[in-house]
Amino acid sequence: MLGHRIGGKRLGIVGMGRIGQAVARRARAFGLQIHYHNRRPVAPMIAEELGATYWESLDQMLARMDIISVNCPHTPATYHLLSARRLKLIRKEAYVVNTARGEVIDEDMLIKLIEAGDIGGAALDVYEHEPAVNPKLVRLARAGKVTLLPHMGSATIEGRVEMGEKVIINIRTFLDAHKPPDRVLPSML
Q1: 115 is catalytic
Q2: What is the DSSP letter of 188?
């Protein structure tokens, strides 16, 4: 029942949109140093508020972090963004947290690296082949190397009400012959 202190550790956030920024705010309360990679830097005011350091190179950031938090959307450009090559850059003691989309990480390579002791562990709320969960991940969870959740990061009453309201807004906007604010990308179909 022993864990590790996280105060003073380096958190590398992949994707610094609304969710990445919320993660950064919470992580600062635990004394983590905030680092991030994004398509472009956040506004200087936001970076200052979060005490966040921007890394233009994802590879360089991954190689230096204690915890990696994946918060980017799944698009053709982010499929296996954390590829086998990039996962091998992560420090042996580091942990990977994915609450974004399973397809962003090469799950098979993540498993191999954790099994070999080349990555400290992982916490996953999403899986590459959902709803299926790789049996090797289940074994690693039983061994205390990974934490698995059933894709429930948004499972709050408030979150689900907001999702429903978004659906209503999108339907009304579409029926009014306008482009809905939350469209499905044709490249994702």
Answers
A1: no
A2: G
Catalytic pick from 93, 130, 162, 165?
A: 130
Does the active-site annotation cover 4?
no
Active-site residue, from 35, 86, 101, 103: 101
158 is catalytic: no
DSSP 91-148: -TT-EEEE-S-GGGB-HHHHHHHHHTTSS-EEEESS-TTTT---HHHHHHHHTTSEEE
Q: How far apart are CA 165 and CA 161, in angstroms?
A: 6
CA angle 63, 94, 129 (to 5 degrees): 95
Q: In the chain, what is the greatest distance between 2 CA atoms, to the nearest angstrom?
A: 57
Mapped onto helix, strand or coil, the DSSP state of residue 156 is coil
What is the tens place of the pLDDT at every residue in 57-76? 999 999 999 999 999 999 89
Predicted local confidence at residue 185, as pLDDT: 64
Q: How far apart are CA 31 and CA 76, in angstroms?
A: 34
